[in-house]
Amino acid sequence: MEIDTFQINDDETLEDLGLDGLKLLQKASGFRFGTDAVLLAHFCAPRDRERIMDLCTGSGIIPVLIAGKTSVGEIVGIELQEKYAAMAQRSITGNLLEDRITIRQGDVTDREFLADFGKFDLVTCNPPYKEWGRGIPNPGDELMIARHEVTLKLEDVIRAADLLLKDNGRLCLVHRPERLFDIYRCMQEHHMELKRIRMVCPSHGKAPNLMLVEGKKGQKPYLKWEPELAIYEADGTYTNEVKEIYQDGRH
Fold first, then answer.
1. Mean pLDDT of 69-78
2. 20 to 30 Å CA-CA from 105: which of 42, 52, 164, 208?
3. Superfamily for 37-241?
4. CB within 8 Å of 20: residues ≥ 6 apart
């Protein structure tokens, strides 16, 4: 595809996603997307006619990946931090995706703000992993907000999804395994059932350090455990499945 000129600020880099010519702006020394975002964009398995909302969109990586891998026509990304929202918007403009992706700066905990968007078939989120008060907060405000539940708690994400989702709509998250019970409890409190889980481990035989989960709104209990996903082989290279996930899509 033909790509427009990107406006790149001095504190930013432009990354080639290796997907249909798509590129993404990132902060040179701030929060940068990782494998967890790529895995979530794959795990959520978006369908072409779905209307999708990505909470805590950051650089806009998940909307851009979904747009590159599917024919989904409407994706909205919400980001609290103004500079990240503006950067994500420049990535959308540079990739000529304005007719498919909308980036909005705003607070996921603001019910009136969310109500303006209507209902969605799928909500995705790569939220802050670390519960506030645990671990050592990063001294940089941007990184602290991205990694710790400073401005947004897990329950806030699930409450927002409850407001945004249609009946039978799906919420897909990537999180830490130690938060599984919290996710289950919060989903039940907000009209959702945990339906699908996939644990992610650094390599074969290692304990999982990530998990991918899907909940559905207004559904009866039924849980499917998917096979564990290993990221690396013993020699440090990606496993074949992870290579396929990175390469999946239209090129």
1. 95
2. 42
3. Vaccinia Virus protein VP39 (3.40.50.150)
4. 1, 68, 249, 250, 251
Q: Which residue has the higher pLDDT, 185 or 20?
A: 185
Positive or negative, the CA dihedral 238, 23, 127, 181 is: negative
For the chain, percent of residues with pLDDT exceeding 90: 77
Distance between CA atoms of residues 142 and 145, nearest Å:
5
**Three-state helix/strand/coil letters over the chain:** CCCCCCCCCCCEEEEECCCCCCEEEEECCCCCCCHHHHHHHHHCCCCCCCEEEEECCCCCHHHHHHHHHCCCCEEEEEECCHHHHHHHHHHHHHCCCCCCEEEEECCCCCHHHHHCCCCEEEEEECCCCECCCCCCCCCCHHHHHHHECCCCCHHHHHHHHHHHEEEEEEEEEEECHHHHHHHHHHHHHCCEEEEEEEEEEEECCCCCCEEEEEEEECCCCCCEECCCEEEECCCCCECHHHHHHHHCCCC
- In the chain, pLDDT over 70 holds for what percent of residues? 88
**Number of residues assigned to the chain:** 251
In single-letter form, the type of residue at position 73 comes to: G
As a whole number, mean pLDDT of residues 47-74 equals: 95
What was the pLDDT predicted at 22?
94
How many CA atoms lie within 13 Å of 174's alpha carbon, on the beta-carbon side?
A: 23
Domain boundaries, the chain: 37-241
The residue among 172, 182, 224, 204 whose CA lies nearest residue 39 is 172
* Alpha-carbon span 228 to 240, nearest angstrom: 14
Mean pLDDT of the chain: 89
